[in-house]
Amino acid sequence: MRSLLYVGALCAFVALCHRVDAQYLPAERPALGGGVDAAFAPRFGVEYALPEIHKWYAPRHLFETYAQPWYAQETRYAEGDYRRYVAQLLEGSEWYDSFGSPLGRGWLVYSWTQTQAASQGSVIMKRPASPERRDTYSSFFSRLVIASDGDGRGTYRLMIGDQIYTNFTPLTFYKPRFNGMRMDYATDRLLASMILSRPSEPNRDSRTDVTNLMGGHIDVDATDNLRFGLTYVSAHNARSKEDFASGNPFAGVLTTNQNQALQDLWVSVRDDSPADGTGGPALFSYDIVLTDTSGSQIRGSEIGFLPFVEGGRSEGSTLVASGAERIVLHYDLESLDYEGINSVDLSRARVELSLANDYRIEMASNLQTDGDRSDPEPVFLTFDRASGNVTDRSNGTVLRLDYALPTANELIGFNWDLRDWKGLSTMGELVVNRRYGQYPSPNIPRGYRAVQQASAAYGTALYKRYPWALYAEGFSIDDSYATNYWLTEASGSIRYKDRVPQLYEFVDDDDDFNAVPDWERPLQPWNATVWPGYDENGDFIFDHNQNLNLQPDYDEPFLRFRSDRPEYLFGFDMNHNGTVDRFEDDDLPDYPFKRDLRGFNAYLSARVGPDMLLLAGRQDMRRLSGDGRTRSWYGFWAWSWRHRWGLLRLFELGKVVRDDIPDDINQWTQPAGALGRMRRVFDLLPLRNTWQNTFYLDFEHELWNGTHFLHRVKWEGLWQRDESESVREREGRYRSGFLGLINKGEWSIPIGLAVLEPRVKSEVRRDRPFSALLEETTIAEQTLFLIWTQPLMAESVGVAYFPRYGRQLFNTQLQVGIELSRLSLLDGQSEAVRESSRSWTWVGQLTNKVGYMGYQLVLRTGVRLGNRHLDGGDDERSSLFFLTVNAGL
Amino acid sequence: MAPRWLLLALCAASWVHAQEGYRLESNRVVIEGADQWQVWESPLGVRQIDDTGTVRPRYLRSETNAVRNADQFFRVNAEEDTLYGGVSAAGSNVVDAAHVIDGDINTYWEPDSADEVERWYVEVDLGRTVIAKRIVVRFVEEGMGDPFLKFRVMISDGRQAFGSDNRRQFLRVGQVNFRNKDQREFSFDVAPLRPAPSGVEGAVTQFVRIDALDSDNARGAEVGKEEYDALGDEDRGAIDYFRVTAAGREIAVLPDTYALLPEVDRGPVRYYRRERPRLAEVEVVELGDNVVALTQRELFQDQTLFGNLLRRQLTDGLHMSSFDLRVYDPLKNENQLEIDLGAKYWLDRVRLISPENPPVAYQIRISDGGLDPSGELVWKEFDERFNPNSFVQLEEQFIPQEVQHIELRRLELVGSTAEKATLSEVQAYGEGYVSDVVMTSPLIKLARAQIFSSLEWDADIPPGARLEVRTRSGDDIIEDAHYYDRYGREISEERWVNIRNQEHRGPVVVNELIGPKWSNWSELYAGSGDAFRSPNPRRMVQVQARLRSVDPLRATALRSVQLRFSAPLVDQLFAEVWPVRGIEAGSEAEFTVYVLPTFGGGDPGFDRLKVRASSSASLQLVSVRSGSEASLRFGAGQQLWPGPWSLSAEGPGYFELALPQVARRGATLYAITFRTRVFLNSTTFYVDLANSGLPGTVQVASDGDASSLAGSQSMVVVTDLLKAPLLSGLRAVPGVVTPNGDGINDAAQVSFTVYRLTGAVHFAVSVYDLAGRQVRDLSFERANASGEHALQWDGRDEGGSVVVPGVYVLRVHFAADADEGLGAAVPVYVVY
Fold first, then answer.
1. Chain centroid to CA A669: how far?
2. Is the dihedral of CA B381, B382, B386, B389 positive or negative?
3. Chain B CB contacts of A305 below 8 Å
4. CB contact under 8 A, A388 and B817
5. What is the pLDDT of residue A133?
6. A284, B384: Cβ pair inside 8 Å?
7. Are A481 and A410 in contact (CB under 8 A)?
8. Which pTM value belongs to this model?
9. Burial code of B297-336, b = ≥16 C-beta within 10 A, e = fewer?
10. CB contact under 8 A, A313 and B818
């Protein structure tokens, strides 16, 4: 009996403690850890348990309330010297683990808990609403927290961060700014990573319906030069109200708003290649098979449940739709009430379509919308597409498509990497993509779960036997291969259509490799200005815009000496759209090969001495979902010759190409006198049936000490092999190409401590675009520079801060420069150059470098004056005053 | 003589049908005449209907006279007055001023001679903004009057000067500043009045004003006395008297003075005809028809919708209204102006007109309406254009091509908020017929379901043009009611009902929509008089005519369409087949078609019943029975074949049964059982009823619930061919041929089966020797490719000689888009 009383008193005491604790601590602060029974909670001082009304009379500590010290005894802080009032060891609050053991005093930096079954059970906090509201995670830890440990066998590292560079394999996971938790483990022969994230809102908030991401990658070294890898990535919906034990969590569940009775189902059948205007789908028959929660099957045609058919036209007993036409079958599931069937009781709906030709099947429903609250618009998602562009009905089939709302997307991958085994190196990847969906059925735990599958694979191999080398690559990536998943909103709904696609991308688009995605997606940083491939020095800054002013350096005074236009550079264009591949920016995930393509590329190369390479190759690839094929033969000669006179490099590339796969890109354009901008550049298929030759040569040398000269030539020619009439119809030119020549030289003349630098640059370019709508232009440009650098107070030597743009050896120096330029538009007119002009620019600047608080400060101040006289008579004058300070280490 | 009320009723009925878009006669539906074509739906402005009732695609004209149709354009001014184009002002003789734009050189406007010359002006309002290239002024022919002695031609773009009087600004484009007595036609070229890029023609014009500057008035022309005396009072001009000096000089004197002069001093007396300044015609030759205003003006007239404001201002055809374009946002892909012309027009230029602050950078895209695989429009994008000179007329020229969508993007040049882009009009010009006009009839309703037998039309279809006609039919309609408040805003039914004061309720507009049981649009009719291609019998039908032109200068002219109909053989006819699933492809299976005719009073009935299939596989009739569902279910019922019914015809894919007498009554269910094989994914069966007494009338059974013995309600048998190849089962029997003429194994019977393919296919069948040489070509063609095919090879080469003994390879190959199983080969041994 006594023991019972004791236990009762103890329980009452604990309960009281808990109540007071609840009053004192902010409700959001998970002081006791998620889901821990209060009986195991830590004990608090008895003073907290007193029945005080004015609980602020309870003893406090300065460190807990120093922001409002209205109760403190000592408030005359001004009387003393400056001191830190709070001992660091006393800052923060006391925290406890799940067993009630104290973790130490401090702050809650990051917390992610998922409690099931509970409403708003998924909680992420990076800025807890504690009394001090300290954003410790971002302010102290710069959004990155790392824990690690290891022993003699291996080490692991656990990171929580907003911008963790994470890369599994190119087909499965690449996020330069991964937001979530990542744990890496490594031994001598094993490398493993695991990631966890809540992409639907990784930064804060409590949610019932969330999108979770879980993934892992492991690489095992089977031998010294052979490595195998496995990857698993899954993004799926989770609902914290649901019991954790109910089913495979990686298959996902329908969110609260999605798991409602389906009222309307639309099935759209349309032409998958509408541009040709013919050969669209032929729909022979259609039916729907419904399954109710008891397992009974109901065939629509047998009970007279027929769709309302819109669009298309009859050809005999067949419905056809070509070009822009579309056949839409509308099933009004609510009308099943007449048959005594309640749509709430359905657990599966399967559409059967007997059809042929080039079809694309899309489905929509009242639950699959753009999420607009007042007038939601159904959004059609593709469920199936015909392979190729069949027009003679020879691919007739019966499709059985289960309607399902997406619940998860899963990738299972295998990769290998063999390095130099008897001259053979090979690597590749095979990935299976499984997309889970579920029929909304609120009356049972789970409606029918459908799975769609796609695959992607590639392999590359190189066999070297000096002087020969054989390289081959093969690839096949299904059009439906998807490495993204929908983001769940707080309301539990999903917006299937939005200006910003509500998708979480496993593989981001980062064509400029600046570690910032190029496309806009929710809750992640991105940049719209993309200069792919122009960052040769790897500083994450476009080489042609080192001063980050959104004006290419080759168009800026003085800077233009170092920066040559991209047109003069050499590179391969294996998709034959007229732009060097490494300079391309698209809106696609950064897979190693493009989606919807299957093909190969192989070449045989031979080295003739150490400086010369000869190569011949063959490429063949085709689109999987429709028309489009690329075939090419190519030959390449590279020669590098270093001599006491200088360094000469030569590239010669010839190819014959048949390409009708468009590869549109985004490209930075700099119109004359206007803001530069990213612009969509459509592939006009300049190499549809074409000979192409590209010749490039550059030569660097010195005439005497202090001089440096560069000569660069690039000539590219395209000859169409189609009939000239056909080329004209495409508004193309039969012959097109580019010829460019650059000569530039500089001389550094020391005069005392000062330096005089005369420079000269001559540039000629002739551009004859393939598009006949664009003018053929010939431009010559001569520029003379003269720069005087005068050190002031030259007593000490500092560190060069901007070595790329000038000599800065002294702490203070004065620089004066003048640039004289003459641009002659010899023929035609281009977007960037409208008329001939001559210009002068004068710059004077004072530079100072000094150490400050451990940083190296560089201060620049000066003025730039410019004048450009257009031959048309106009003058453009400009002036710039600047005073800037940069800090570096 | 018909009573008057009957005539009135007939007239009223005719009017009603004209309003409905068709005329109903005893056995046909006729669509003809402008009134009926007007009711047919088509995108705005794409067609033209002339006075004879012929409908054609709109012809987009180039270099037209803008005054001729000025009265078809109107605008609403600030006082909400509706102002139509035409003669908008005349300083004198207002009554006759309209003659200057009536196109008749014999009618004219003559200012009142009593008015001051300053009032001798006429002003023509073109009703819309045009690009005037030339203005032609014509005076009456000689003998009918005089030209203006001096005059000038001025134009205005419609904008009014800022100030209290709000007067329009006119700028002179031509002037005759010499004394013109003879020239009667003047043509003044009009150049852009403000600086424009090279190649941009014409000036923005809405008003044209002709001002007379001088007149000889009473001394129009000197005439003799006799002629003067013969003139009417209104034409008699001045009489001048002259005194002659000794030196022979003539000095004008007053008549009284002249009378007092001695004879020797009297000089001549000169008689004048009064000047008759008569302006006959004013022509304004414009760049052409501006298709943007033609098609968009009416779409965005609703002033209450703010969203229409931008589009209305830029497409209303009026330079006097303008709007500031926002900068195009490439990331959000918004703020662009997209114009859907509703159909494809042959265009060669898009022009932008601005009153001031024109866009400094812009881009234009056009599309013919083609889509990419993702369903988005395929655009043709022109280069970004810059306008550093602030030209107020800008133009994008391109080779003539079909255009349905135009998109304008204003681009940012310097990124300053002070940068404006004001536009008043987006115009598009070209020449040629609209290349694709789709016109849809209203619902054509008959009193009861009828069998439509044929469709005829009367049209001129030149080479390079096409007429595509299709139909759809049905019995049910859905009434879709729309409720409006008194301000014309659409509201919910509940809200409409809750408006207590009925005067505050707006109209209820009920749209009739086709019901779910309507057929889809049929395939195209091959020619006029073609058999009706939609399900029959039906109570309602809809016709769609598509006028297509490949050549921009040629177009179809459609005058009339007729639909012939007759009474149905039976009131209702449903059929369904069983089984419809689970059929093994290529294997013979037994099917039963259940046919349920329901007779109405007076139905002519049927005595022929035909079952046909969409494939060419033979149908082997097994039995025909009739009776109730219950009796058929248990295998009872009356046996009709073999029995009283006879097999009157059969062939590939069909058989026809003849009844001993016409069936006119009863509610009998027929069960027709036959065997066939299916080679297609989907095989459709049809049941046709005919009456030998009514040749040409065929009633096709509708898919439906004919019997509970079949659960399909369908006549389509679906066979899942899965991954079956297109070609299979190639074999040669016997494999060893001995072509020695003994009748034993002299030839190899070759057979193979083709699946999935429909339509005609050429089968390339060749025999090769082991060296790869072709020794015999056995290729053939089949209209229906799917099914079993057989041929034989007699061991002989092309020359008819027996091949040498050995092994040969017989290969079958044919073309198909799907690339699996296209070719197969089988060895054949020749021994002798």
1. 22
2. negative
3. none
4. yes
5. 65
6. no
7. no
8. 0.80
9. bebbeeeeeeeeebbbbbbbbbbbbbbebebbebeeeeeb
10. no
Q: Could you give the CA distance from residue A287 to residue A448 in angstroms, rounded to a whole number? A: 18
Q: Alpha helices of A690-746 — where are they, by DSSP H? A: 724-729
Distance from chain centroid for Cα A160: 20
Q: Could you give the CA distance from residue B642 to residue B211 in angstroms, rounded to a whole number?
A: 97
Sheet holding B620-627, edge to edge: B638-641, B620-627, B669-677, B588-598, B572-578, B702-703
3-state secondary structure of A352: strand
Q: What integer pLDDT is reported at residue A41 of this predicted model?
A: 33
Cα torsion through B742, B747, B748, B749, rounded to 10: -110
Q: Nearest CB to A677: which of B330, B614, B722?
A: B330
Q: Which of these, B718, B86, B351, B584, lies nearest to A400 by C-alpha position? A: B718
Q: Given an 8 Å threshold on Cβ–Cβ distance, is A313 in contact with B712?
A: no
Element (H, E) at B329: none
CB contact under 8 Å between A393 and B726, yes or no, is no
Model confidence pLDDT, tens digit, residues B665-720 = 877 899 999 999 888 888 889 999 999 988 878 898 988 888 888 877 888 888 87
- Cα angle at B151 between B145 and B156, to 5 degrees? 125
The ipTM value here is 0.77
Cα separation, B134 vs B131, in Å, equals 9
- Cβ atoms of residues A744 and A762 within 8 Å: yes
A384 SS3 class: strand
**Neighboring chain A residues of B372 at a CB cutoff of 8 Å:** 274-275
User: How many residue pairs bridge chain A and chain B with CB atoms within 8 Å of each other?
Assistant: 162
The pair of three-digit structure tokens given for residue A531, joined into one six-digit string: 């200069």
pLDDT of B308 reads 66
Residues B284 and B126: beta-carbon distance below 8 Å: yes
Contact B370 A682 (CB under 8 A): no
Q: B585 CA to chain A: closest CA distance, Å? A: 12
Buried b (16+ CB within 10 A) or exposed e, A505-514: bbbbbbbbeb
Digit-coded pLDDT (tens) for B606-660: 999 999 988 878 899 999 999 988 888 888 888 999 999 999 999 888 999 999 9
Closest CA to B572 of B588, B595, B545: B595
Q: Which of B516, B716, B757 faces A285 most closely, judged by CB atoms?
A: B716
Interface probe for B, chosen from A393, A730, A835, A875 (most Cβ of B below 10 Å), is: A393
Identify the CA nearest to A740 among candidates A784, A785, A696: A696
Arithmetic mean of pLDDT over chain B: 88
pLDDT of residue B174: 93
Contact B817 A391 (CB under 8 A): yes
* Contact by Cβ (8 Å): A371, A287: no
A679 and B384 within 8 Å at the Cβ level: the answer is yes
Nearest C-alpha neighbor of A199 from the set A188, A191, A209: A209
Residue B373 confidence (pLDDT): 76
| B522 CB burial (10 A radius; 0-12, 13-18, 19+) | buried
Beta bridge partners of A713: A697, A741
Indicate whether B4 pLDDT > 90.
no
Amino acid letter at B108?
A: Y
Residues of A in contact with B722 (CB under 8 A): 397
pLDDT of B505 higher than 80: yes
| Three-class DSSP category at A395 | coil
DSSP annotation of B551 reads: S
Per-residue pLDDT tens over the stretch B260-272 = 988 888 999 999 9
Tokens representing A121? 């059970």
Show the tokens assigned to B829: 């041994």
A526: chain B residues, CB-CB within 8 Å: none
| Contact in structure between A432 and A412 (CB atoms under 8 Å) | yes
Report cis status (omega within 30 of 0) of the bond before B400: no
Who has greater pLDDT, B307 or A248?
A248
